[in-house]
């Protein structure tokens, strides 16, 4: 397939088209994922999440610049569930994309909420696969840590950075949101602002009290806007990944992540067959009528529905 | 089957066992639902919901007494998602059940949250079928209107009463919770308490502004504790159901409810086959490994998983 070889060559337009295809779940997208499957797994996947306003995009851009100094290609997927434009770009993203467009070694894509349940998580992982196949050594998945599904998206990475800032409210609040449980490294950005000491202290205190398993999670201070602390942050997650590769926890995590991913894809497939395929609405109406006519039990009708929809 | 005939005869112990069986989704429960299917549909299903503390159980008990005066058998399913005892009874339920135990024409069952997604809604409808088959002319489904899933449970009824009280906070709050959209009759209980006028006014004002389709929803005042307004309330939903039977909207609503129910059951069945059947965990682990080994794409692995689990 022409498109697959273009993706392998790292052609930005081909990559963008490929991501749109997998995002929309088209047969073309599916065929492409089939072709790239044997080449996947080389990229390290970095999840970056945190409350709105902590400086996630600034930090991701700064990390990208540091990695690019070593020559490695970087792919960025920015997940914005609040964006009304599916797969489109908001003003902020557009500015970022223009800035990054100068560098052929960086590919950036913004993804918004899809209608289907679990859809954004599925599409994000598929897009990460495209970037992996295109030769990006690092794929950064940036997502606003506002809901369970966004937290899940970040969690699918090999290493998760949770960003906070002195302005993002107290550390206790962050603990409550479930963000801390997925953090491999806690980053306090805007560390020059008043309150940085306080939030660090709060996080430490909360970890001592409640999240004993997370007691050793490192806290890293950055000022992403001026690049301060960023090379050290990159060195830190490099070391984290190297350690985990040594003791097998890297592979173990990939296995757990892949299990969750297969669940999401399987449920997506089944959901589509059951409720969105041709004739699904008529089938449901017909079988509901059969139960009301007392010619089927509700379970027999549901079984028939599953059987017809999935061809069992 | 012996159990089915015992259910048809209205034997309380047989009904209780039958509900436990359908709640747990056992093969015995399924067989029973198959046997009773040809006899279903006669009972009218009354949904009663509202915020905690408005007097739902007192109102349901008072409604039950009024209906019992006419000799009709009544079944009550009290859904309490906060109860830690699956299918068990809390102190308050126990008192109610003892009080009702004197009357063989009343069957009461308390149901708590089940683990499975959509499980409580599914189990509640199945239990209502058991009560229907056992000869209850009225099945009341009482549920705390705290979350979307509880609202959905009440919504599956032929008529929905939404209870509020002067103490339940302002009417605007109730509008926000999505309760009003499913109300066929709004009941202001504890109508003797200060603030009853105010909440009625607020509800009317909110309906004028926002819920135009619900503008004609009747508001009914009760003092359930002393039975005041309850015979009139029963007459009101009787008339509501009679009207709807005349113009076909009763059957139309049953069709829509049955479609939602079949969706829930189908998803429950698929979910169980995919993730909870024998060998499901091993299958998932094996296919995740296959993707990580690059011998399958994630989609091919998910397809294989669905196919193996559902026998397609």
Number of strand segments of chain A: 7
What's the rounded overall pLDDT mean of chain A?
87
Look at the helices and sheets of chain A and give the structural class.
Answer: alpha/beta
The first-to-last residue Cα distance of chain A is 32 Å
Chain pair with largest interface: A-B, 48 and 49 residues
Which spans of chain A of ≥5 residues are poorly predicted at pLDDT below 50? 84-89
Q: Helical residue percent of chain A?
A: 40-55%
Strand percentage of chain A: 5-15%
User: What does the oligomeric state look like here?
Assistant: homodimer
- Total helices of chain A: the number is 13
Secondary-structure element order of chain A, as H and E?
Answer: HHHEHEHEHEHEHEHEHHHH
Strand order of the largest sheet of chain A: 3-2-4-1-5-6-7
Instruction: Describe the global form of chain A.
Output: globular
């Amino acid at each position: 397939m022409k498109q697959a070889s273009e993706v392998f060559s790292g052609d930005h337009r081909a990559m963008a088209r490929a991501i749109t295809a997998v995002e929309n779940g088209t047969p073309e997208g599916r065929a492409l994922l089939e072709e790239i499957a044997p080449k996947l797994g080389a990229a390290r996947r970095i999840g970056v999440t945190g409350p709105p306003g902590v400086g996630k995009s600034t930090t991701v851009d700064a990390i990208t610049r540091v990695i690019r100094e070593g020559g490695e290609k970087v792919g960025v997927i920015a997940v914005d569930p609040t964006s009304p434009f599916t797969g489109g770009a908001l003003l902020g993203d557009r500015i970022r994309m223009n800035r990054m467009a100068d560098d052929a070694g960086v590919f950036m894509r913004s993804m918004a909420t899809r209608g289907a349940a679990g859809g954004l998580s599925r599409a994000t992982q598929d897009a990460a696969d495209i970037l992996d196949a295109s030769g990006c050594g690092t794929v950064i998945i940036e997502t606003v840590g506002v809901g369970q599904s966004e937290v899940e998206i970040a969690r699918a990475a090999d290493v998760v950075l949770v960003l906070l800032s002195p302005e993002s409210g107290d550390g206790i609040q962050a603990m409550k949101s479930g963000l801390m449980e997925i953090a491999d490294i806690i980053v306090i950005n805007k560390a020059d602002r008043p309150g940085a000491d306080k939030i660090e202290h709060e996080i430490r205190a909360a970890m001592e009290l409640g999240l004993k398993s997370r007691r050793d999670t490192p806290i890293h201070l950055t000022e992403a806007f001026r690049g301060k602390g960023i090379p050290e942050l990159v060195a830190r997650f490099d070391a984290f990944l190297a350690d985990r590769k040594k003791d097998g926890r890297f592979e173990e995590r990939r296995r757990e992540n892949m299990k969750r991913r297969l669940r999401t894809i399987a449920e997506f497939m089944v959901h589509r067959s059951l409720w969105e395929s041709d004739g699904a609405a008529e089938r449901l109406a017909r079988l509901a009528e059969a139960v009301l006519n007392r010619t089927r039990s509700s379970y027999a009708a549901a079984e028939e529905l599953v059987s017809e929809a999935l061809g069992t």
